[in-house]
């Protein structure tokens, strides 16, 4: 919220143990850090602790690097991994698309107007269609076509573009290619995908036809991290939209667009606000 | 809505063909029936037509039987099946439960206060626990315990109770037994079940543990007709509720209760208002 | 839905009376019009009847003008006003904006991709800021600045632009000027406005500050026709979004953007699909 | 959630100042309290700090009174008000009703099944109608009729019943009498009311008729604390439900029932879980 704009974020996780909160909050106090929002959760099943603190430094010349260095010693005693994020941070991202542009258009709008603190470094697509949209936003567009024969090369090229761009997150905004297990593994935890999940889940070919046959009354969208299994990674956000009998299969596809946009944007926002923690194949999302 | 209370309902379906609306509306006009609400839908994929008309007879001594008789001739020319439902109709139902009572309590509250135009003829359970709740409402409670050995007998008894009660609908309000294929078939289209579907669908054992492992952000409920496959019948209504990482598997179970109540009640209401049409394994629900 | 794309729409209203449905459906039958979806409602309080039929002509050379001419005689016997809309109809609109572009961006996206069957004739603004967005879509942009002294002239210019464009609907997509009573009256029923309504309604200055002071948990949006009172016209669609204590007044403003976009787009869609009927200061919206 | 069941809750608030988090978390660490969930928020506009910690004591013989006593010294240095709530705490409540029973039925169901950790001490009503419902739950029912002449006496009696019952919260579950300013003041912050708020807010006589005239598409419910102004107190929870043109004023009333039940139950749950903080006429609700 408001105070977020000028707050630093300290986010961390470690194995559950007495004193995990104290090691963080005591240090923040000692450093003269004024906590505006704090949220921690201890997962008793997973035996893991998660914490996120938004704070304002009291002194004007607050030194992030010095903070990191000094906190490292304390954190290591708890096997704690942490990140310190400055107030003016904009997450560098690469967006991958095919021909469908509703999610891309939505992300670029939020990017252009500063509603989403991302720094779009490049757009990658296996089709040339969305180049004009990228151009209007002054963004590099890499058209990397793919065939079964060239898949390995194309994915190598995708990796190269992402690496050279300095992106910390890849957003699969309706990229209609199945990534190879290698690329999934490479991007694990660093790539967010949106897929049109349905209630109940319909797997296999033509999911919307299956959903239509059952007469579903809701269509949904799931934003999740990629892991080794493309469509089954840890869930970050989900949304639904009502439909009825008058929605033929092609209408179900269309109907899901708005909820896909909103759900993907929400997931990216949670990620860049350092609200999402990955552990043991699932997420903890410290909202509110 | 309001005018529903004193309206007759004519609901019908037949194969798609020119003139299906006209055969209904012309007859209503001829009979001096004042239409307050009309909804029709022609499913081009299924090739089937559905219509629902709420109307007020102009003459005070409107004769339902006469109406049915006269309309039969016209309807048969279109292979049209129809139902005429009077304004004061209360649907006779049998409710089946186990030990969990949230759906039962909700249904009985709506029944007792007249919010749901059902006439509860009996409650059937494989456990004795909910007898006091039935007793307070002055309703017969049939405790029919079940074991693998007695399943066939118990189900025969269930059928007998339903038949003798005159129920037109069986509501499975968290009845935790898997009905035999025979009983499913027997009740096909005449029994509504509620089950906790999830996004994406988790099948097999311990669905809530699977959902927890994935970190789902929504839990859902699906009310559907029973057909030969217990949990896969045509969907009537669906709902969802938000959850987060702090919901352990046992919390996910608890969290779904409110949405199960609301979704089941909505499905029963649509059914008794003759808004739900079954055709070729899916539903058309003419709401609003 | 699907069949809408190639269906004609007949929409009509008249005073309540026996036979209102029949006069429509009988004529459609006689003309060989195959009804794919039909919805009628008779408002007993207002004493007014509303009907909307989607249909496919049986003959290839269906003549809309001939249909209109022939139906006029029948309709006039019921004091019925009707509209016949062809399948390929795109509603000509003028969009009015100020500096805020979330609703404009959303509408133009849906326009550009054909998701919303509008034909944007011009964009009118009292500021120059959004001209590039219009330019990228190849749309004329009329910058008509306004001061208290020039209000009358500016509004005359707005009327001229709208008239010359041939627009049938004006969409106020966050146009931050209060229209004069004369212009409101001129556009009555032909202009849709979106405003951030709150729960409960806060009127007067700084509504978001009032809402913050009360600690509202929901912010909303209302799309409505303009009538003589700018913010109080007949409601077409409404939506809400959850907020919490961490939303300061400026956050409440930001939070409402997504729901404003969705609600305005839905209202425009209902309007162009001829689902919205205006009568006695309120709307009847025949959805589904 | 799960761990809540056996967690102690420490909730506190004080003026904003550096070190407010640390004074709480350091003490919990020193006392060997294992924090399972922690949430704090510092309201920069109000200049007030809020914190809620759920924790499990390490030692089996944890002494709540000793904890309170020792923490008092530290807290007072920060002008901090705090509450310590044990895991097996059940909030003693008095429920006030008139003739409408949907909220009462819902609350008593959640009470009876242990879903809501309340201890219903008594039910107070100005009508005798709901006595049987109370009786079935084995609860004392105080029928305290009211007339303009006896209002002062009746309210004195209400206060007496509440005091003698030891209730810490009064739940106005559709109590259709306007409390006197004196009683409002007396119950300020200790009584939760549910009222059917609408979008936009309609005040004055017959709000549902006003809402109908405007053609609202949503009806809502607001649960709030009572303060000196009965219907305008600090908001705890809000919900909405969709409606359409076919909902006549009397239908709007009926339609709001489900959302009133859910919203009131949610507000009572937040309150008893010590998630709701009152400050300067508004609430901070630390959920999730």
Largest sheet features of chain A: 7 strands, mixed
Assembly state of the chains shown: homotetramer
What is the count of helical runs of chain A? 9
Q: How many domains of chain A?
A: 2
**Biggest interface pair, residues each?**
A-B, 37 and 37 residues
Strand content range of chain A: 25-35%
Uncertain segments of chain A: none
User: What's the arrangement of strands in the largest beta sheet of chain A?
Assistant: 7-6-5-8-9-10-11
Question: What is the element string of chain A, with H for helices and E for strands?
Answer: EHEEHEEHEHEHEHEHEEHHEE
The CATH homologous superfamily of the largest domain in chain A: Formyl transferase, N-terminal domain
What's the mean pLDDT score of chain A?
92
Structural class of chain A: alpha/beta
Give the overall form of chain A. globular
Distance between the termini of chain A: 9 Å
CATH class of the largest domain in chain A: Alpha Beta
Q: Could you tell me the number of beta strands of chain A? A: 13
| CATH architectural category of the largest domain in chain A | 3-Layer(aba) Sandwich
Helix fraction of chain A, binned, reads: 25-40%
Could you list some keywords that capture this structure?
purine biosynthesis (chains A, B, C, D); PurU_ACT (chains A, B, C, D); 9 helices; 4-stranded antiparallel β-sheet; Alpha-Beta Plaits; alpha/beta; homotetramer; Rossmann fold; 288 residues; 2 domains
């Amino acid at each position: 919220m408001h105070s977020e704009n000028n707050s630093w974020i300290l986010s961390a996780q470690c194995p559950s143990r007495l004193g995990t909160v104290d090691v963080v909050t005591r240090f923040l106090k000692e450093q003269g850090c004024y906590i505006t929002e704090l949220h921690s959760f201890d997962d008793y099943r997973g035996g893991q602790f998660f914490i996120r603190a938004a704070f304002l430094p009291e002194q004007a010349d607050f030194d992030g690097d010095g903070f990191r260095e000094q906190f490292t010693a304390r954190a290591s005693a708890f096997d704690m991994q942490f990140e310190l994020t400055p107030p003016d941070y904009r997450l560098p991202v690469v967006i991958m698309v095919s021909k469908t542009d509703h999610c891309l258009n939505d992300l670029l709008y939020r990017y252009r107007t500063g509603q989403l603190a991302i720094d779009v470094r490049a757009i990658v697509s296996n089709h040339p269609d969305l180049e004009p949209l990228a151009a209007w936003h002054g963004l590099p567009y890499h058209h990397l076509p793919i065939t079964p024969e060239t898949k390995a090369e194309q994915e190598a090229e995708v990796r190269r573009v992402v690496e050279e761009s300095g992106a910390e997150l890849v957003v699969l905004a309706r990229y209609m290619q199945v990534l190879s297990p290698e690329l999934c593994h490479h991007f694990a935890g660093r790539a967010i995908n949106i897929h049109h999940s349905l209630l109940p889940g319909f797997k296999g070919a033509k999911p919307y036809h299956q959903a239509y046959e059952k007469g579903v009354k809701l269509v949904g969208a799931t934003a999740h991290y990629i892991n080794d299994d493309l469509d089954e990674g840890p869930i970050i956000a989900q949304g639904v939209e009502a439909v009825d009998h008058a929605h033929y299969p092609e209408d179900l596809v269309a109907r899901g667009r708005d909820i896909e946009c909103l759900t993907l944007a929400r997931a990216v926002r949670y990620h860049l606000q350092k609200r999402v923690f990955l552990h043991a194949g699932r997420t903890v999302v410290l909202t509110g």
